[in-house]
Design goal:
The complex is a heterodimer of chains A (about 350) and B (about 1150). Chain A has about 350 residues and is an alpha+beta fold. Chain A is built from nine helices and eleven strands. Chain A is extended, with a radius of gyration of 34 Å. Chain B has about 1150 residues and is an alpha+beta fold. The longest helix of chain B has about 40 residues. The chains are: A alpha+beta (about 350), B alpha+beta (about 1150).
Amino acid sequence: MSNQAVGSSSGGSGDGDAPRRNSRKPKYSKFTQQELPACKPILTPKWVISVFLLVGIIFVPIGLVSLMASRKVVEIVDRYDDACVPDNMTDKLAYIQNSTIPKTCTRTLKVPKDMKSPIFVYYQLDNFYQNHRRYVKSRSDTQLRDANKANDTSTCDPEGMINGTAIVPCGLIAWSIFNDTYAFVHNSKNLTVDKKDISWKSDREHKFGSDVFPKNFQKGALIGGKALDPTIPLSQQEDLIVWMRTAALPTFRKLYGRILVDLKQNDTVTVTLENNYNTYSFGGKKKLVLSTSTWLGGKNDFLGLAYLTVGGLCFFLAFAFTLLYLIKPRKLGDSNYLSWNRSPAGR
Amino acid sequence: MASERPLLDASPDAPSPLPPASSLLPPPQREPPLRAERLAFSVDIPDPFIPSSHRDHQPDPSASQREPQEGDESRAVFVGESSGAFVGNSIRTAKYSVLTFLPRNLFEQFRRLSYVYFLAITVLNQLPQVAVFGRGASVLPLAFVLFVTAVKDAYEDFRRHRSDRQENNRLAAVLAPGTAREFSPKKWKHIRVGDVVRVASSETLPADMVLLATSDSTGVAHVQTLNLDGETNLKTRYAKQETQLRFSQDGSIGGVLHCERPNRNIYGFQANLEIDGKRVSLGPSNIVLRGCELKNTTWAIGVVVYTGKETKVMLNSSGAPSKRSRLETQLNRETVILSIMLIGMCTTASVLAGIWLLNHRGDLEFTQFFREKDYTTGKNYNYYGMGMQIFITFLMAVIVYQVIIPISLYISMELVRLGQAYFMGADKDLYDESSRSKFQCRALNINEDLGQVKYVFSDKTGTLTENKMEFQCASIRGVDYSSGKDTDGYSVVVDDLIWTPKMEVRTDPQLLKLLRGGGTDEERMLFLEFFLALAACNTIVPLVLDTRDPKQKLIDYQGESPDEQALVYAAASYGIVLVERTSGYVVIDVLGERRRFDILGLHEFDSDRKRMSVIVGCPDKTVKLYVKGADSSLFGITKKSLELDIVRATEAHLHTYSSLGLRTLVVGMRELSRPEFEEWQLAYENASTAVLGRGNLLRSVAANIESSVHILGATGIEDKLQDGVPEAIESLRQADIKVWILTGDKQETAISIGYSCKLLTNDMTQIVINNNSKESCRKSLEEALATTKKLRITSSIGMLSPELASESAGITLALIIDGNSLVYILETELQEELFKVARECSVVLCCRVAPLQKAGIVALIKNRTDDMTLAIGDGANDVSMIQMADVGVGISGQEGRQAVMASDFSMGQFRFLLPLLLVHGHWNYQRMSYMILYNFYKNATFVLVLFWYVLYTAFTLTTAITEWSSLLYTVLYTSLPTIVVGILDKDLSKATLLAYPKLYGSGQRDEKYNVNLFILNMLEALWQSLVVFYMPYFAYRQSTIDMSSLGDLWALAPVIVVNMQLATDIFRWNWIIHAFVWGTIAATTICLFVIDSIWILPGYGAIFHIMGTGLFWLLLLIIAVAAMVPHFVIKAFAEYFTPSDIQIAREMEKVDDVNQGKRSEIL
């Protein structure tokens, strides 16, 4: 019937593939016609109210449980950086930099509530930017793991080499390792601090080599922190491993050890500490923290409060929407609401 | 003709041989005889303006001076001698080779400004002082984007390579040098200029060749130019008698051919051939072009003149014009806002960093985490003083926050468009069964513009109508025969075979009876003359086709004018069957009796005369002139005094026909006496061999002989409306799309078509502007403006909004303007007036417009408003309009492919505009808008999380999130779901969108993408980033949390949050979307696992560690919920209390679904 259909069929159709009309009929399938079975959710009042109620119902209990967990944690925080400087020393920086001045300091802690073992011992540094760009980059993970890659110190400046030989572990992070020590006496008995397994198992096993030993460490002009025993491999230097997990925020705690003894309310614990670490130069604070733990971690009411707030808000919203729906109901899918069906006179 | 003009301007309708003054004359009508004018390209009509006009043997000194023979102007081709001096015949459409792929592809890709931006950032990152990310990591996103694009390009190019290779290795028969008539096969790519090639029937021509000889003794060859311009009809080409004779005598060839340099004008060619000491001039009718097929001719021999990339088809194969979508332009505005945000954030960070350094000036030396000095060297370590530190911080901030301008957006948009194009092409509702043409997206970057169209400019013929002319009515000698009913086919018997015309036309039984012997002989003679005129006065070539039945043959009438075809088919149905046509005679089967008529002369159609005529030598030795043309033109040359009654009756019939929307033609005849004929013959021969002014001479010869014509009758041809056109136009109007019709037809025809396609209705007030001078145009425009104002005032009494008022009052205006007036209005100061009037009118009809005027009208709207314009057309005369409009749609119909070639989208039927605009356009716009906004939002969320963290790192641009995660976030963690949603999500079903065209308004009003939505998205990003950052911040304050673990939480949480946001906004969840949305979250987690399993990174094991704690999961839960609450509340509130039309329609769909579900349960 059409000229063209016959016209082209009479022509030689076998030759060439010069631009030919794309004439194959599209195949019908639900996919190509974009008609795959689909769910079309619509925010009906029922849905909106149920969602808010559901969130509320889930969140408020979680909030309460979290808050209770946080409240159960007993925590002793003792700031000692100021207190441990002798009163006659006004220049704190000079005090900490003068190695001839004895740094031993004694603090007495009062247990506010019963503390169940294990009690975690943390040191907390304030205002210490372990996440500072210069700092956080200054490490060599290859060197830490592999004894043969000790000279991999290119990323460790300015603590990479000393007198032409590589420092192991190199870099600012390792160099600045925390070196205050704590000893606890309770009821005139020494409390042993368990310093085993304070670091991540994965770090000990895979990240820090068991055949990598400290070398040339803390030999520079400026001592950054603790000296490491060159006879112990890095994988067992747990303080280092903990320290090298750089903290996310400028106020952070690091695990020092565990006390595996229960403490009673109103007990006193005497801490003998070596106040070696220099936080005075930048106005940082040092705190000793003894804390119990729950499934949720340490003492922090925030999560519980957040859950309660959000849950409560959702209850309120459920209520508010119910009210709105009642005050101003609208029939769903009513074509009278289409803009061109709303008569201008009705306005 | 018009050899200097680019192809696209050389539209067949442009009357180029007109004197310059003709630009003030009315533009040519798109009327049937116009079709004949197109023959101008196949029959060698002389043109006074081109030098090659002397084809006779008297070399004219003045003409030969202008001839292209100087070295730089022309090329000399020695016939039969391969010349290596010109490019080879191998073609190369592929852009790249293996070697050049990388540099060229990269160069092309980097032409985008955004990629340069990302490259600059990457380069910046390579500076050691500024390096934020590791070298490998920083290159990754850019490399990824470049890689994906490169793979896409490489695949496309591979396909081009393959087709090139096939094309180049095809074989052609080439004359072996030094022999006569010995042709040996040669690969196309080895053909050189000067080779003599023999082409058999149905073979494709390997290069542009000048015909030397053909199997036809008169040197005629027929070619089909389907591959060139898509026209399926045959065109006639000639070999020069000189070469034809020489070849047929002894098979020899030879001579030197001078031709113009390669150019892209398909319809122009000038050359001359020196042969046997004579100089023969060659024109466009002597050349056959590469890509054409030889038809209906056993063989043809030609000499190759242009090869390979110099052939006209290759010179014309330029891609569709590149347009940019509205959204993409708008997107730049938001990009600027984001850049300002970026600079703001970077400035904040660097200023704060400066303040911090200032406060800690004295401490830096002994601060463990800063360590200003390197003690081994005693110098400062990586510290360059305050100012420099601030500057470096700024640069680093730019690198860290660069993602706020989403790199993946550009590639996502391309992929989404690709997917959308696939689904548009696959839509069965856009497939045209009758022409077997699929919807095609030719431009891949303006899909979303389809959703915002406000003006549709439509061609009439072939676009609204089918351009399949159907003979409907005949008025013969003042009697109307238009009650055609039966279609009993008429066949002729030739050599025991039955030849049947391919198309049957309904015949009027009364007329048939009269013709077959009822009525007087004199009457019968007149009827016969009428149909003989229809059968002979044309340029139709009958083609005889085989059918399955060996005894049956089909006659297919091939010609360049559908009107002529219709007339010949009509004559055939009445028993006057055109059987054969050669250049010298036609054979017509007159009611079973075969007669041979000599064609003694043919006067082409031209737009001055508006008619064409043939001089026919009849078997009874009489000589007759048959003429057909426009009514106005023919009534001017009749012997009115003698035939007043007939003329009046015919005029009345013509009026009836044209008000029915039929295209009308008047047919006339005159018998020539011997002296008259001889006089004419002399003049004709002189004119057609004249060197100068041949066209004018021929025209005056024609004008002389075409006088005192008897009116035989008139015909009415229906150009049938395409299926569904009235409905489509009605729906478009409901969708507030203004439909303008631009046609070359007469005003009456245009108006009647306007009525039949329901564009015009009886309750409309018509404003007609039809003037012949600028002053009167000004006056009518002012009057029209006054009318519109008056109407507006009267109808707006008591109403506030004038737009609403004019609609509700039921008074709509229709503007009808013709090309005459447009000559005085367009591109003058009156344009502004016209624009004002046209804006007030809901319908605009422009009749008798020229192609360039069409573009001018589109430009009138496009340049003055922000409204999206769409032009739809099918012919070469629509090309300029299609390219001018924001969106150009080509109908792949009867009139060839030029419109399609120039278009952005092509399809088979006008009514497909509905699914294209209302459904796909709506979807594309909605999806693309959402995707762009979402991409801005998701990246802003992430960047803000990074920004908050910097406040707690002494402003040193540390990221807790690993560099890999922060780079993968935009390209991998969050990009796939948006792409899939951008391709697959549908806010409303096709049925709903088609049922409520007004839903289209959301795109016209920019409802889905605007500054308000952008700001809302940014506010949501702000809130969500605060939640994502500060929930963990407070929960982990004063704890042992390490950077890597918290970083993993901060990487995972935004991915979950932005996917939740996406999830709440998805309209339709099918399994693919489910898979991608949830799969992305899973994939992100897996990526985090992988990154944290690399022991060389500081974060080794962190994700496993933190996932072992309950706090992590509780935090994820509350982050996800708290982040989503505002979005959810806003959405729930807005959807219920201020529902958009789309929302209501969605609810209606849902209600329907539920009802149907219930019903099916009951059943």
